[in-house]
Amino acid sequence: MYIPNAQSIFAAGLALTGVGLGPASTVISGKVLDYAVESCIDSDGNTRCSKPFAVQASKCYKIEWSTDGAVSHTTVEVRDAGSSELVYYRDTNGEWTPEKNELVYMDFKPKVWRTGNDTVEYEVKTCK
Asked: Could you say which of 38, 73, 111, 124 would form a disulfide bridge with 27 (CB–CB 3.0 to 4.6 Å)?
């Protein structure tokens, strides 16, 4: 489990207040390995979850991702950063409107049999 440092908490506080968020701004983006090994940091030190980021209740977020691999399909799971409880699930790019303010992270589960350990590139933006 990821434990946020002071900088992460400060950034989350800024995000919750809406500072720096204009129309369709990027909230978070990056690359991780898929969640074939169900741990945010695996035994080899590979990152398999996004860093935590803050979301606001009733605000729209557009989640997009792509997975490397000849035959691959991953789904996104958005989880509460404190409890790891699943708060949202999608199997295609799309929009999400959280029900409450919270700090969350994403993992990407492979859904094609005998695949996994592929790189996932992701981006979360506020909706226009």
From this structure: 124
